[in-house]
Design a protein that fits this description.
Layout (H helix, E strand, L loop, with lengths): L1 E3 L9 H8 L6 E3 L8 H4 L1 H14 L4 H6 L31 H7 L1
Parallel strand pairs: 1-2
Length: about 110
């Protein structure tokens, strides 16, 4: 499964999604910047390719995953995201403590 959660959501803070990711291990989270609660309307350039690839191919390409803000709070799920040459980058959970630290750490 996929969850695209906009970093600029004014309805629910993104920190809520960070906490959910700790308990839902079968979902690959994506945190696109400049995207609010309505991903398809706010960032169709990110939302549409992400879900098109997932439904069409069963996986999201690495370039699309990066553009969509693939979460690195934990290891990237190889069952959902196509592994790039050289392998997935290591997790960086420390940058996900808040929205400010995430933007600074990317």
């Amino acid at each position: 499964m996929l969850c695209l959660y906009g970093l600029a959501s004014s309805w629910l803070p993104v920190e809520n999604a960070f906490a959910q990711e700790d308990y839902i291990d079968n979902i690959q989270f994506f945190f696109p910047d400049n995207c609010g609660h309505m991903g398809p309307l706010d960032r169709p350039d990110v939302f549409n390719p992400l879900f098109l690839e997932f439904f069409r191919d069963g996986k999201v390409s690495w370039p699309t995953a990066v553009a969509a803000g693939v979460s690195r709070r934990r290891p990237v799920m190889a069952s959902v995201v196509e592994e790039p040459p050289g392998g997935f980058p290591p997790p960086k959970p420390e940058i996900y403590s808040s929205l400010e630290s995430l933007r600074a750490g990317l």
